[in-house]
């Protein structure tokens, strides 16, 4: 049990607008710690929806979800926010930084929220993360002054700042060129191999998926291939 | 540490849109400075009118009132068991004034509320100079006590008040009388009052108040002079004037004195009903103006925060995605409102003070009123800031709550 990062049991979800339809049908998914999983499937198959359920942001589902062995289904929204803050790092397709803040601040904010380290320490750690991605020179620039690739790297740095057990990506490389995609992939691989962090990404990029530890295929709201 | 992040984000949002922040703060500033200005004007004016009314009216005036005739005299002739009916009763004149006035004064002085008491003889009189006559009233007073209570000296335009004590048959007349009868200090004036004979008196001073009617009728004489004018003895007193520590206590103290002495005690509130009414009307007008200003400022903040939240909805979703719970988001936006309120409040205090100061230099020049009466009263400033910040919190709360309810999934997935 201890080596399971995430466990979903018969997760079912409906969309009600414009008409009620079932998007996720009895999904069972177990992700062990340190695994790098890619979820693939056609547009509209429900893979992003699944990811948002797994991320605890979407609470409107049936079934049960456990993260690090703790049941999160039915927890209060504030509790879930704390879980996301400490245990989950999220990377979106479009970088989604806070444009009014510097890159460094963007990376620091989740850690400041967590409050585990003092301000100075957080600053150092954030700088380290930026250095890992080779964008430390941009640290004091406003986030909206950077190129798309740079912004995505800042966003990933932000996802990593609290050393989360699970990193989730919703097409994290969807907006990047092949060079940047390579950098991001190598980084994810390094995180899972060397730091034992669990990585779950939804992707359209077949090449990216093929190189990950496991490919989960989805179609019409069900998992058609667990990849093992 | 956790709370500091919210503050830091709130401050960054405020400083990254300086213009909007400034406009919102200006709204609050305007509300608060107007609040201060209006309150200062109202208090200044009220204080002026109160002070003015106390320059001629004591806090309490004790006098012997005419009474309606009743049937008690008949009781001596008829038995108690009979029913006595008096048709068409008339007012009975009280010719004696207040009986044992100095004894009454002693007993009034025992009341801890009372600070000053002075007797007065009021005489209706006719002033004559040459062939011209003028109706008026002579107030026979102890001039030292009178001056202490009503600052008669402050109204003097010519001559000396103290001469009333030195000059035999001295009189201090109003400016209107002096003009109508062409009198100057040192001239003689013939005064005849009630049942007494005409007396030639010497003008030793001239005073002017803001009230023309008083200036044209009133004169001050020594109390003994007034008693002589009326042909009465030394114990004859028509009024006893009383000042209290706090004039707001006048009505209950007046009732008390009425019960003790048996004479009519009129407090300044009864004597100045229209003044009280004016205070109340002014308060309603000014408070509604202030209310509207603060309401408008509040709507300004509400609008600006609502717009900010609309613009920042994606960022709110991100904050929630990276682990900010609803209350943190509320705090971020409510803090923005509070900082706008504080900023507007501080500038508002300064601007409010400046406006108050500048308007207090506006020349009016009517009667004894030289400049616009403004008061500089600290509690007004504290009240203004409290109201301002309360308004901003109320205005900021609803947009902030809306922000905390943003569903990150909906926004991020588009």
Quaternary class = heterodimer
Unreliable runs of chain B, pLDDT <50, ≥5 residues? none
Overall pLDDT level of chain A: 85
Helix content of chain B: 40-55%
Number of domains of chain A: 1
- The N- to C-terminal Cα distance of chain B equals 32 Å
Radius of gyration of chain B: 33 Å
Principal-axis shape of chain A equals globular
Number of helices of chain A: 7
What characteristics describe this protein?
heterodimer, A: 228 residues, alpha/beta, Rossmann fold, 4-stranded antiparallel sheet, 7 helices, 27% strand, globular, B: 414 residues, alpha+beta, 2 domains, 6-stranded mixed β-barrel, two-stranded antiparallel ribbon
List the helices and strands and how they pair.
The complex is a heterodimer of chains A (about 230) and B (about 425).
Chain A: E1 4-15, E2 21-32, E3 36-41, H1 47-54, E4 62-67, E5 70-71, H2 77-87, E6 88-91, H3 103-114, H4 119-132, H5 148-160, E7 166-170, H6 178-194, E8 198-202, H7 206-210, E9 214-219, E10 222-225
Parallel strand pairs in A: 3-8, 3-9, 6-7, 7-8
Antiparallel strand pairs in A: 1-2, 1-4, 4-5, 9-10
Helix pairs in contact in A: 3-4, 3-5, 4-5
Chain B: H1 2-16, H2 18-53, E1 60-63, E2 67-68, E3 91-92, H3 101-109, E4 114-129, E5 132-141, H4 143-150, E6 156-159, H5 163-166, E7 170-174, H6 175-180, E8 188-193, E9 199-207, H7 212-215, E10 218-222, H8 223-230, E11 239-244, H9 250-261, E12 264-267, H10 268-271, H11 273-311, H12 313-321, H13 326-359, E13 363-366, E14 369-371, H14 378-404, H15 408-413
Parallel strand pairs in B: 5-10, 7-9
Antiparallel strand pairs in B: 1-11, 1-12, 2-3, 4-5, 4-8, 4-11, 6-9, 7-10, 8-9, 13-14
